[in-house]
Amino acid sequence: MSVEFIGIDPDTDRDHCPTVWADTEARELLLQGWRPDEQTHAECEATSLANGPVPDSEAIIRIPARMIPMIREACDAVERAQLR
User: Fold this and answer.
1) pLDDT score of 48 more than 90
2) By three-state DSSP, how is residue 63 classified?
3) Which strands form 28-32's sheet, in the order they lie side by side?
4) 11 φ, ψ to 5°?
5) In the predicted model, what is the mean pLDDT of residues 21-26?
6) What mean pLDDT value characterizes the chain?
7) Structurally, how many domains does the chain consist of?
8) What does 12-59 look like in DSSP terms, one character per residue?
9) Strand-pair category, 3-8 with 28-32
10) Rounded CA gap, 29 and 3, in Å?
11) What is residue 67's DSSP assignment?
């Protein structure tokens, strides 16, 4: 299987947790996070006017900064897969 579990936010309730995976075959990160409130979503879209609205096939998610080490680990896993 090409999807490698990296970790979940240790400071959440284990039912609604931001999670990080690495898809080493597709060379992509998979992130599960919290949906932003409507105001934050609108602000994100407004700051990227050149790109237009977020398509229905994409999402803005929040990931806590404490998960940066997990995201780095996922990046490393994807980069290692490129070397194979």
Assistant:
1) no
2) coil
3) 3-8, 19-23, 28-32
4) -100, 20
5) 94
6) 89
7) 1
8) S-SSS--EEEEETTTTEEEEE-BPPPHHHHHHHHHHTGGG-SPPTT--
9) unpaired
10) 9
11) G
Query: 4 CB contacts (<8 Å, ≥6 apart)?
Result: 21, 22, 23, 24, 74, 77
Confidence at 35, pLDDT banded by 50, 70, 90: very high
d(CA 14, CA 28): 24
Contact 19, 32 (CB under 8 A): yes
The mean pLDDT of 24-44, rounded to a whole number, is: 93
Question: What is the pTM (predicted TM-score) of this model?
Answer: 0.83
Mean pLDDT of 44-71: 88
Domain that holds residue 11: 3-83
